[in-house]
Design a protein that fits this description.
Blueprint: H1 4-16, H2 19-26, H3 34-55, H4 62-89, H5 97-107, H6 111-122, H7 126-156, H8 164-168, H9 171-186, H10 199-215, H11 218-232, H12 235-240, H13 242-264, H14 270-280, H15 287-294, H16 299-327
């Protein structure tokens, strides 16, 4: 059973992995473009492999297939509820650029770069971890579709900026579809296709081991990016920007509580409840910084919002888990 202490320690030590990135950036050992370069490595090289290896962690079952669909629907509904809330909350000021960025920070979570590594670290049982990460992959896929549709619209206010090509060519979407195809076709881990001791088994075991090396890089590299961004932000703005604190409060408290109550009483598996809850309660999405650069918005403010919510999540995530576990009675 997962405890408050487990969640707290996992968050703390996960964020400690940001220290090397912070130190390397402060000492100028990293160039200014390091965070963007590492983000590309994680997004295009490591995260898709992590998704594939996660699907290889267990055999196909109808229960898992149904739960994947449920996870996708619940994640979609939760996001739509959050969209509606920020739409109503900022209805009279929705055309202001700063408000657009606050809305994005309030809705989209760092479910891929931080959520996946967090659940990997938190869940120690290999079989249960594999099941969690499969559901994570589905939720992250939903996030990416919404990010390049609703997210782009929230940030730009222009539906013409929405690109179907960016959705279809997103590496996470491709990885989920490919992994799902293999999962449904083979219906068991690839390594089980060959008998132990045969040449085929040796090839498959070495292949999976090599892929595991790549997938294991997601956690440290994603945290490196957080550390680099922390090193490059304006500390004064971090401490005084009221809009950033508003976005942080909405994201980590208001939205997280809404998601918690949304999933707590649904007649679904506890693994799905906690997958959706943890992923959507993560700090604000780091992808918002890159999107702000792309659409010529205030990327410095977005960096402040991401870093501030990441630091504050050390407190909010364990406390929210404690409430969901002890008060609402959703025991993992």
């Amino acid at each position: 059973m997962i405890s408050f202490f487990d969640v707290f320690i996992t968050v703390v030590f996960l964020l400690l992995l940001a220290a090397p990135g912070f130190i390397f950036a402060k000492t100028k050992m990293f160039p200014n473009t390091a965070s963007e370069t590492i983000s590309v490595i994680v997004l295009y090289g490591c995260q898709p492999v992590l998704i594939f290896t996660s699907f290889q962690g267990c055999s196909f079952s109808m229960d898992i297939a149904i739960n994947m669909l449920i996870a996708a629907v619940v994640a979609l509904v939760a996001h739509l509820v959050m969209f509606a809330i920020v739409k109503l909350a900022f209805l009279k000021r929705e055309n202001e650029d700063k408000v657009k960025l606050v809305k994005y920070l309030s809705v989209f979570s760092n479910c891929g770069f931080m959520g996946l590594p967090f659940l990997q670290s938190l869940i120690e049982d290999p079989a249960l971890q594999a099941e969690f990460v499969i559901y994570c992959a589905v939720v992250v896929a939903v996030f990416n579709v919404l990010n390049w549709t609703f997210g782009v619209y929230i940030m730009t206010g222009d539906k013409k900026e929405i690109s179907v090509k960016k959705i279809l060519m997103n590496p996470v979407i491709i990885a989920v579809l490919f992994s799902l195809l293999v999962f449904l076709t083979v219906q068991k881990p690839l390594i089980e296709l060959a008998a132990v001791g045969t040449a085929g088994y040796t090839v498959l075991s070495k292949l999976m081991k090599s892929l595991t090396y790549l997938s294991d890089m997601v956690t440290p590299l994603a945290m490196f990016v957080v550390g680099i961004r922390l090193a490059n932000i304006n500390v004064k703005q971090l401490l005084t920007d009221k809009w950033a604190y508003l976005a942080m409060a909405i994201k980590l408290v208001v939205m997280s509580v809404i998601v918690m109550f949304l999933v707590a009483y649904l007649p679904i598996a506890t693994t799905i409840k906690y997958t959706v809850f943890f992923l959507l309660s993560m700090p604000s999405a780091a992808s918002g910084v890159m999107m702000a650069v792309q659409y010529k918005k205030d990327s410095d403010f977005m960096s402040i919002g991401v870093v501030l919510s990441t630091l504050c999540s050390i407190v909010t995530l364990p406390l929210l888990f404690l409430f969901m576990n002890s008060v609402l009675g959703v025991v993992l």
